[in-house]
Amino acid sequence: MAVSASDIRSALSLPSSSTPVQSATTAPRKYQGQVTKKPEGISRELYALIGPSAPSLVAHLAKPRLKQKPNFGSGGKVKWEWRPFRNAGRTDSLQLGHWVKTTDDPDAEYSFAKYNVQSQSYTYSQEEYTRFLEDKDWTKDETDILFNVVREYDTRWYVVHDRYEPPPDSPTRSLEDLKDRYYSVCRKLIRNRPWAGDEASKAQLLNSYQFDKDRERMRKDYIASLEDRTPEEIAEEEALFIELKRLEQNERKFKKERDELLRTLLGIDSGLPDIVAEEDGLSALSAEGFKKRKKNANEIEIPSTPSNIISLGPPPPKRAQSAKSAALDAQNCIIRVEPPASSATKITHAPVHLRSFKLPAPKAALLPKVTQALTELGINHTRLVMPTRENCARLESLIEATTALIDTKKVVDRVEQDIRVLRVRLGRASEGAEEDGKEGTPMEVDGGAEAGADADADADADAEGEVDGRAQSILSTRSGRGRKQSRRSMSVSSIGTSASARVGKRQKRG
Amino acid sequence: MVNYGGDEVSALVLDIGTSSLRAGYAGDDIPKAVIPSFYGYHTVDGDVQMGENTLENFESTPKPPPSDAKPYVGRDGPLIWRENMELGNPVRDALIVDFNPIPTLISHALVDVMRVNPSEHPVLVTEPAWNTAANRERMAEIMFEEFHVPAFYIANTGVLNAFAAGKGSALVIDVGYAMASITPVVDGFVLRKGLVSSALPKLVKAHARHILSNPTPMRRGIELLPHQLIASKLPVEPGAPPKFTLREDRISGTTNSWRGWCENREVEEWMQSVAGVLDQGWNDQAAASRPARQYEFPTGYNTYFGPERYQVGEQFFFHSPQLVAQNPNLPKNIPTLLSESLRACDPDLRQVLMGNVVLTGGGSLFSGFADRLEAELSRNFPHVKIHAPGNPIERRYGGWLGGSILASLGTFHQLWISREEWQEHGKPIVGQRCK
């Protein structure tokens, strides 16, 4: 292009004085760009290949820079001198010597004297002894000896017990006796002496001197009896332990197999341990089916738990609740609910969940009305601040009561409407045909009651009888409703339960 | 300096045992001077000394009592044959029973070997756990009155062995030259009720000697002659009768005590090089399966020792019922001592102690001893941990090493009994300070 440009220039006889200068400057610049300085650590050929576009590699291959050598002190010689010293921990004037740096302060206190710490110990006066510390088992002399030994050996009890030499006529004391006496005396002294600090610190101090002799003795006896076991006893215990483990494993295996069998035979996804298997169904077992079921069986099976508790993992079947575990539960506010005996379908299978996730809600059909009624009363039922078990139960009963109220109101409305209609008809009938009214009344009442039952929308097949009963008269509706209400309060919390119970029954029959 | 808690005041540590006396600077890891506790002496006054030893022994040492004139101490003392030289040992069963030659021995170690002036250094002395109060007071007296030390302390070998292993609480199994002892140590204090000891090593040596000197169907009884009494010998085939000539000139001038000591040395040497103990209890097959080992005595007699070399070590751990029935005063074996010691300890402590077993003492270097002990212990106790230093120096001089550590600690220096305190309080201060 440059060439053509110059040609044009020459053709147009334009001044071309600038052109050679430009071309002279551009050419070296290009050249410079090609040979930017090759970084160290890369061979020329490689650099020619990768070009300058590999900064990370360059950084990587850069020559490592060694850490600077540490500089010890000022570099000069350290002068040491033999210097005599006195130990502040000593009561005499013994002078020992040691090597120290000449730069060290000669008047400084001996650096190890600070470790000379005396432990605090209690002493008592004769008066205090006679007032508080009398004990029929211990004489004052013996107590004095004990306190001296304890002080001498800084309450290292094993050593104290070893070195304690009772007066000739006193009984031999066990370590627990010594500890008990010492700590009880200390406790009495703390309690009876004026206390400068607050009560809490006094109680804390008292606590630190607490000693339960019988418990200690029992513990020691237990340790001793553990040690005194003969090798045969130890072997037997171990054998028993292994046997127990084996039995447990067998039990688990057996249960698993039984469940598999059940599933194979009856086609239930049974995670439940205590469904009784029927023996004669065994012939139906096909190898293919067995394999298929086996895969399912390998999945972790969690027995279902009722919906409104925090379930604590799969509870073992037929847990024997000992008194201890009951106490523990009470202490930790754990409420265990036995899983319903027969519910084991996929529908009711509930994993571990928080109680607040399963707050009771009114039925969808009635939801707007319930919400409206509750809003009128100024209650917000969608959110529980504290979803405890009790609160959940109360919310549930509140929603039930509201639903019942709405139902009742609906029925009342309908009945009133019917009455109004009937009155109108009655009035018309009294004017005209009399036989129409006679036949129509019972039929219409019946229909109204049934409508109420429909609105109920409780798809309980068993309620058929009740509907019949309700149909008998208008007045009985309310009492029937009351009965039904009590039933439903059960069924709301366990819809799945009763359904599955039926399924279970049916399946057994099949 | 403060970081590791050490502060060396150039103290000396002195450990007197039945076989040897160890001395060195606190802070060192091996004693500078190790001399035998045995010493030779002539009962007759004015006896001629062996010319080459005069210089070594008797310069700048305190004059020994006239009855024990001129004891020969040090490396050139008892080992060298001298006419009519009797052999004595101030230490019996780890306890000092005769204080007369003690100053000579100490002086030899400190002044002649270490070349120090004891009056310039605090001295820490060791004592066995069963030492008597009178003994330790006498020792303090010797150090203060004869050596004019500025400060003195006497510490228990059991505690020091635990310290040497870096433990404050330990069950120290110490198999020495004459005594085997088990010492429970808690927080640096010996539990005296759990302390047990027996002259087991002596029994083992006697048994070994019995095995060697009595003829068996395989070989004749072995003459335990020391090389000092043998003029010349010729090499012989294994099991063949030795060909040697005695130094007849020396036989008449050899005393019984010296000869007995030399014979014991031969037995010990044989034990150290050949004898052993099976690691899983006595078993004829196991003993027979081990290779026989050759050993040559100073007479030139040499033979292979098979299973019998393992019978020796068995004495440490097991005594046959008939042997026990015959000798009511038989020293107790290690398992018996252990169970006795543990029974005297608090049940809480047993677990701690068994987790901190420290094996020490020159006798514990007996081949296979540590393995056998481990097998015995782990059979009876669930969690056993044995600290047995592989370094023979640490094992043999564990007591000295612990003393070296203790006396170089900065916090220890307030425990020294100073000269001033000694002069003020007298002997009772020893019992008060060194608990």
Automatic annotation (TrEMBL), chain A:
Give any single GO term for biological process. chromatin remodeling
* UniProt feature, compositional bias: Polar residues: 13-26
The UniProt entry, under Pfam families, shows: SANT_DAMP1_like
Q: Where in the cell is it found?
A: Nucleus
Cellular component per GO, a single term: Swr1 complex
List the GO molecular function terms: transcription corepressor activity
List, alphabetically, the SMART domains matched.
Answer: SANT
Q: Where is the Myb-like domain?
A: 138-186
Start and end residues of each stretch annotated as Disordered: 1-38, 428-510
Q: Where is the composition biased (Acidic residues)?
A: 453-466
Q: What family does the entry list?
A: Belongs to the SWC4 family.
Q: What is this protein called?
A: SWR1-complex protein 4
Q: Which organism is it from?
A: Suillus luteus UH-Slu-Lm8-n1
What are the top taxonomic ranks of the organism? Eukaryota, Fungi, Dikarya, Basidiomycota, Agaricomycotina
UniProtKB/TrEMBL annotation, chain B:
Q: Which SMART domains match?
A: ACTIN
The record, for Pfam families, names: Actin
Q: CDD domains annotated for this entry?
A: ASKHA_NBD_Arp4_ACTL6-like
Q: Which domain of life is it from?
A: Eukaryota
Write out the similarity annotation. Answer: Belongs to the actin family.
Q: What is this protein called?
A: Actin-related protein Arp4p
